[in-house]
Amino acid sequence: MSKRTMSIGGATYDLFVRFSEETVAMYSDHKAFKLTLGDKIRAEEVLEMCGGGASNTAVGLARLGCQAGFCGVVGDDQWGGKLLENFNKENVDITCATVVEGEVSSFSIILSAGSGERVILYDPGTNDHLHDVTFDKEQVGTMDWIYFNHIQANTCAIEDDMIGILAAETGPGLTWNPGGCQIDVGVDAPNNCTLLAHTNLLLLNKSEALEFSKTSTVEEAMKTLLAKGVRNVCITDGSRGTIASDGKNTYHCPILSESTVTDTTGAGDAFGTGATWALLEGKSLPEALRAGTINASSVVSKIGAQAGLLTHTEMKHQLQNTALDVTSTPLL
Question: How many CB atoms lie within 10 A of CB 163?
């Protein structure tokens, strides 16, 4: 029987505005769009798509064969309607979704260049309204696995309920991708300490890992996070791939060098979805890294956060036929 999962966090309606690479300039230490005030710049393409962390991971897990659900808040506007329509199309259970009347759903305007770089302008909208009143802890507590995505500061109020669910003797597994409000207070904050002790898979990029752990190197961050009781830690580092550990060994998984990068939106969610699915399937951490990397590679080859998410059949085929070696060294 397929596993029951619940993705908690945001759903966002994304408007992609694509420009040519000529609108990107290289400065001394960074790239930026050249959007001079008063200019009129022609967009190459404008696309509307569904996104948001919990939306992306719920759709990704549903495509991989899980009985996936979404726990979050949308408005009763046209964007909220399209987000709910997308969940229904992707066979995502929306029993735990809350629709707020008279409020604007979260939306983003994503300025994208041909080389894959992008700038995201966003309004959290109804994502700010996920709190104790709209969080169905009874339903969430029946899941096999919870995917706790980035959340808004106001949403941190649900952490106490989350801790109660995870502390149950037969509590669900947990994938956690901490949000800014959680990263800012660090690993020693009481709720963070407790959540980390119940986390099966912790997902952070390099800068988040260093800030969260208050350390200066990935190796130090890894040891700090494992010491808090996390079973598996994954730290992504862009083109340098992913470093991970299960407390016994350190693993490095490169990116797929032949990948075509069209748009990097949703790459982290796709990685986390693939890795979570692999652990639910009983696969090892190295195999989870491969699954996450393959899923992320597929997503960045297309525009938007969900278009490239793989199905169960596609993932199994690519795991068998993709050359992607994960190296291992003992944890020092």
Answer: 16
Q: Are 32 and 8 in contact (CB under 8 A)?
A: no
Torsion, CA 96, CA 100, CA 104, CA 107, rounded to 10: 0
pTM of the predicted structure, to 2 decimals: 0.93
- List, in order, residues 6 or more apart from 79 with CB less than 8 Å away: 13, 104, 105, 106, 107
β-bridge partners, 233: 202, 245
Q: What span, in angstroms and rounded, lies between the C-alpha atoms of 212 and 153?
A: 15
> Contact at 8 Å (CB) between 75 and 105?
yes
Residue type, 270: A
- In the CATH hierarchy, which top-level class contains the domain 4-23+43-330? alpha beta
- For 238-286, the pLDDT digits (tens) are 889 999 999 999 999 999 977 788 888 899 999 999 999 999 999 999 9
Which burial class, exposed, middle or buried, applies to 175 when counting CB atoms under 10 A from its CB (0-12, 13-18, 19+)? buried
- Give backbone dihedrals phi and psi of 320, rounded to 5 degrees, phi first: -80, -25
| Rounded-to-10 torsion of CA 84, 288, 217, 219 | 150
